[in-house]
Amino acid sequence: MSGRHEEGGEYLMVAAAVHARIGSTRVRSVEGMGFAAAREGPTLEATVGLAAEAVGKLPEPPDGPIVAEGGEFYEASADRVGLSFQPEFKYVESIGERETVQAAHHAAYAARDLLL
Question: What's the pLDDT tens digit per position in 41-77?
Fold first, then answer.
C-alpha cells in the first residue's frame, strides 16, 4: 500500500498484490502482480477494499493465504480483515512472507510515482 497521506489536498492510494511462491526465508518466484488505485481517504474500509481489488486483479487467484503487515490495516484483527479476502488472510509470520510484502510495497510505491 502506498500513499495513505494527503498531498496537494488529495489522496492517491495505490495497492499492489504480489502472487509469489515462497520458502520460509525467501521468495522463490513471482507469479504475477495486481494493482488498484483510489483517491478516497485512508479509512480501514477503503484500505481493505483497495487491497481486495488489487488481489482480484492478479492474473491467477492465489492458492495460499493473502498476507500483509498489521499496520496496513490499522492493526485490525486478522479475522476482521479476512472477511474481505479469499482463500484466507493472515498477518506476516515468516521471512519469506515479509519479503513478499516488501516486494508489494516497492511495486505500490513505483506505481504511485507513475500516477502522480
Answer: 889 999 999 999 999 999 998 889 999 998 999 999 9
Q: How far from chain centre, in Å, is Cα 116? A: 19
Neighbours of 80 (CB within 10 A): 12
Give the list of residues 6+ apart from residue 8 with CB closer than 8 angstroms, or none. none
Which conformational region is residue 12 in: left (phi greater than 0), alpha (psi within -120 to 50 degrees), or beta? Answer: beta
- Quote the DSSP letter at residue 37: E
Supply the DSSP symbol for 72.
G
Residue 1: which residues within 8 A CB-CB, separation 6 or more? 13, 14, 15, 16, 47, 50, 51, 72, 105, 108
- Cα–Cα–Cα angle for 2, 68, 64, nearest 5°? 130
